[in-house]
Automatic annotation (TrEMBL):
Name of protein: ABC transporter permease subunit
TM region positions: 45-65, 77-97, 189-208, 228-252
Transmembrane as UniProt keyword: yes
The keyword Cytoplasm appears for this protein: no
GO biological process, alphabetically ordered: amino acid transport
Any one Gene Ontology molecular-function term assigned to this protein's record: transmembrane transporter activity
Primary site of residence: membrane
Domain ABC transmembrane type-1: 41-250
Domain of life: Bacteria
Length: 275
């Protein structure tokens, strides 16, 4: 018990630079592995949270652009969604890193002001950008499908009340589209959370050995030559947090459907077997 408490004090926040700087070298205890892998999970949560937050608003903008009659809005949105949905996420990581390292190390001059660019090649920034763009493309397609399948009765009712423009979109179109899209968007959020493990395999470097959960799981597996301890621990963490994510999105789903009969039904997780 004392060893576990000590491991939490030493390594609980190591992934963000707090605690012991050096990793344990030998005689790894189960507590050390659980704590360090859990510490690395902070980065996975960071990537998932901000990618979903920024990607959600970007996806809504892309979905609206995709429904626009103007080709100047529709075609760029179509191209963006096609590129990011049509190429593997890992290749997107690789190409983004190779493109970002080509930027001048001294920065880019913009109207006489030097804008730093070196931070873009770090995992906390560059990998986050790739994840955000990727989930925005998939989410935009989900929201676009919802916008195209809005019940005609609700739209006609909005017209009967004299709603037009932004008021119509804010009070009828957008809430209804979110209600229709939310189960599929929940699957996308879960997939993105799991996809954060790809950051470890990407070219984006972890800063000063402060990696994600898979970074520490791989470290212990390499040192002990036993992958059947560290990797199941990482998988267990992801399973628990996936259940939390399903519960959180389920609360939002019930909120969106609170006015409908049978709104108390739970949101069921239906994983996409092929993506």
């Amino acid at each position: 018990m004392n060893q576990c408490v000590q491991a939490i004090q030493d390594y609980g926040l190591r992934a963000i630079g707090l605690g012991e700087r050096l990793l344990p070298r030998a005689d790894f205890t189960l507590c050390e592995q659980v704590v360090l892998i859990g510490s690395g999970l902070i980065w996975n949560l960071y990537f998932a949270f901000f990618a979903l937050l920024i990607g959600f608003f970007l996806a809504n903008a892309l979905a609206l652009a995709k429904t626009s009659r103007s080709p100047w809005l529709r075609k760029p949105a179509d191209a963006f969604i096609f590129v990011f949905r049509g190429s593997p996420l890992f290749i997107q990581f690789f190409l983004a890193y190779e493109a970002l390292v080509q930027l001048p190390r001294a920065g880019i001059d913009v109207f006489g002001i030097t804008v730093a660019t070196s931070w873009l090649t770090k995992a906390w920034a560059g990998a986050l950008i790739v994840l955000t763009l990727n989930t925005a493309a998939y989410s935009a397609q989900i929201f676009y499908g919802a916008l195209r399948n809005l019940p005609k009765g609700e739209l006609e009712a909005a017209d009967a009340y004299g709603m037009t423009g932004w008021t119509r979109y804010r009070r009828v179109v957008w809430p209804t589209a979110m209600r229709l899209a939310w189960p599929a968007y929940t699957n996308e959020a879960i997939f993105l959370f799991h996809a954060t493990t790809l950051v470890f395999f990407s070219s984006f470097p972890a800063f000063q050995q402060r990696g994600d959960a898979l970074y520490y799981a791989n470290y212990f597996a390499d040192k002990t030559f036993n992958p059947f301890v560290a990797y199941p621990i990482a998988a267990g963490y992801f399973i628990l947090l996936t259940l939390c994510l399903i519960g959180l999105f389920g609360v939002v789903n019930r909120r969106l459907n609170r006015h409908l009969p049978g709104a108390a039904k739970r949101l069921r997780y239906r994983p996409n077997l092929v993506r």
